[in-house]
Amino acid sequence: METLTETELCYPQLVNMSCRKPKRSNTEDVLMYVVLSFISLLTATLNLLVIISVSHFKQLHTPTNLLLRSLAFSDFFVGLLMSFQILLTNGCWLLGDFMCTLYCTLEFVITSASVGNMVLISVDRYIAICDPLHYHTKVTVRAVIHCTCLCWACSVVYNSLIMKDNLKQPGRYKSCSGQCVTVINYVAGIIDLFLTFVGPVTVIIVLYLRVFVVAVSHARVMKARITAVRLQRSSNVQVKKSEIKAARTLGVVVVVFLTCLCPYYCSSLVGKNAVFGITSLPLETWLFYFNSCLNPVIYVFCYPWFLKSIKLIATFKILQHDSSKANIL
Q1: Is 1 inside a domain boundary?
Q2: Other Cβ atoms within 10 Å of 301 Cβ, number
C-alpha cells in the first residue's frame, strides 16, 4: 500500500481524512499564483476606477452610467473574491467550512447581481433607442438607483434561500478535509438555471435584437436626411447618434458577458445535484472571472471620459476643490 508523504496531504495530521494535493510542479504553482494575482489586482483596480469616476464627477451622473457603476461594483467584488483563489494554488482550502460556504454564497450573489444589471442595461438601451421621446421621463436617476438597489437586495435574498442548507450546516457535503464544496438540489438548480440564466438571457437577446433593428432604421433615416435637414443635424440627429453609439458600446459589453457566462451555466448542473467545488475550478469559471476584467477595458476604448477620469484620479486632481464639476465629456 502506498504511503502518502506530508507534502501530498492538505492536513498531514489527518492522514485518513485529509484531501490530497494535486500533483503540480513548483513552476506551475508560481505561474498560477502570478497570473491570479495579476488578474485579481487588475480587475479590482479598473472597476474601482469606474466606481470612483461615476460617483465623483457630476457630469457622469446619468442613468446609463449609474447602471455601469452597479455592474462595476459586482465586477470589483469578483476581483476581491479571486484573492481567495490565490490561497488555493496548492489545491487545499484552509479557511474552514463557514468561509467556504460564505465564499460560494457571495459568488452566487455577485453572479445574479451581474445578470440583473445586464438586464437593466438592456432595458435602458431599449427605451433610449425605441422610445427616445419618453426616455428622460421613464428612466431617471432616482428610478435607476431604486432598480439597482432592488436588484442587489433580491440577489442576496434569493441566493440565501438557495444556499440555506449549506448555510445551516457548512461543510456537510465535503468528502475530505481541505475540500470546499457546496451542493444545490436538482429542483433548486433547475429553478436557478431559469431565473438567473435562461430567463434573463432571453430578455437581453430579445431587447437587443429590437434595439439593433431600430438603430439600423435610425441610421438609414439620418443618412437620408443629412443633406436636407442640416439645421436639425446638430440637435436631434446628434442625440440619436450618441444614443446609438452608447447602445453599440453596451452591446459589446453584453455580448462579451454572455460569451463568458454561457459556459459557466451550461456546466453548472452535474448529475442529480449541482455540485460546486472551488478547490478544482474548471475553465468556464475562470472565463466568468476574467469577464469582470474585460468590462472596464471595453470602456477604455469606447468611452473617452473614462480615460480622462483615470488621468484626473491618477494625478490626484480629484482632491482639488470643485473637481467634481470638471468637464470630462
Answers
A1: no
A2: 11
Residue 13 lies in a domain: no
Q: For 187, phi and psi rounded to 5 degrees? A: -65, -45
H helix runs in the chain, sequence order: 26-56, 63-86, 97-130, 135-138, 141-162, 164-168, 186-193, 199-225, 230-232, 238-266, 283-302, 304-314
pTM above 0.85, yes or no: no
pLDDT tens digit sequence for 100-133? 888 889 988 998 998 899 899 889 988 888 888 8
Residues with Cβ < 8 Å from 226, sequence gap 6 or more? Answer: 233, 237
| 47/236 Cα distance (integer angstroms) | 33
In this structure, what CATH number is given to the domain that contains residue 68? 1.20.1070.10
Distance CA 243, CA 203 (A): 20
Residue 92 in this model has a pLDDT that exceeds 50: yes
Beta-carbon contacts of residue 155 (< 8 Å; ≥ 6 apart): 109, 110, 112, 113, 116
Q: Are 237 and 225 in contact (CB under 8 A)?
A: yes
What per-residue string of b and e applies to 9-40 under the rule 16 or more CB within 10 Å gives b? Answer: bbeeeeeeebbebeeeeeeeeeebeeebeebb
Give the count of domains, the chain.
Answer: 1
Rounded mean pLDDT of 305-323?
87
What would you report as the CA-atom Rg of the chain, rounded to the nearest whole angstrom?
23
Q: Which domain holds residue 267?
A: 25-325
Q: Is the pLDDT of residue 233 over 60?
A: no
Q: Quick check: helix, strand or coil at residue 184? A: strand
Count the Cβ atoms, other than its own, within 10 Å of residue 178: 20
The whole-angstrom separation of Cα 295 and Cα 45 is 12
Close Cβ partners of 270 (under 8 Å, ≥ 6 residues apart): none
Q: Do the domain assignments include residue 17?
A: no
- Please count the other Cβ atoms lying within 10 Å of the Cβ belonging to residue 145: 14
Q: What is the pLDDT of residues 173-211, one digit of tens each?
A: 788 888 888 888 778 878 888 888 888 888 888 888 888
35 lies in some domain: yes
Best CA proximity match to 81, nearest among 266, 276, 286, 294: 286
> In which band, very low, low, confident or very high, does the pLDDT at 1 lie, cut at 50, 70 and 90?
very low
